[in-house]
Write a structure and sequence with these properties.
This protein is α/β, with parallel strands linked by helices. It is about 45% helix and about 20% strand. A hairpin with a 4-residue loop joins β1 (about 25-30) and β2. Mean pLDDT is about 90; it is low at about 1-20.
Length: about 160
């Protein structure tokens, strides 16, 4: 009975993830301009990673993704979007940190945490893979070395479906 309940729960979670689409929320970009989250990637698949300054695994994940990015982009056409969930008091520090890291991806700042709530993010790091139509196809919470490869594998699967 316990196994059946676990299986039903897992199936429900998978269905919830596949039904979710990228919401249209206003956030700030690295230059402080207000942008909409829908259509950010121009129809390309993307990895969307929610992070905060106090989350060491978040920083490790984003740094690792940045290390692999050039190699990955040779195999697939996609974007990476890093969304800081730091609040108004810490947003300038988060913006400065993102600039200093040299991350080669889109950096957004969700200072009111509207995007975080719309995507049902409870803790960071929380990463999503979104297809070119804005549909969430994969969700992962937490970070362990190697889990960034799972994200890229999902991107490759999307590329094969084209």
């Amino acid at each position: 009975m316990k196994k059946l309940l676990c299986l039903l729960f897992a199936a429900g979670c998978a269905a919830a993830v596949s039904a979710q689409t990228m919401p249209d929320v206003k956030v700030e970009n690295l230059r402080g301009e207000t942008v909409s989250t829908s259509g950010l990637t121009g129809g390309k698949p993307c990895i969307v990673s929610f992070w905060s300054m106090t989350c060491k695994p978040c920083i490790l994940e984003l740094n690792t993704i940045n290390e692999y990015l050039d190699e990955w982009r040779e195999e697939a056409d996609f974007e990476v979007v890093a969304v800081s969930t730091d609040d108004v008091r810490a947003i300038s520090q988060a913006r400065g940190y993102a600039q200093s890291r040299g991350w080669d991806f889109i950096c957004l700042f969700d200072k009111n945490q509207d995007f975080k709530r719309a995507m049902n993010v409870a803790q960071t790091p929380h990463s999503f893979v979104v297809d070119g139509d804005g549909k969430v196809v994969y969700s992962h919470t937490g970070y362990t070395p190697g889990s960034e490869q799972e994200l890229f594998e999902k991107i490759l699967e999307l590329q094969k479906k084209k």
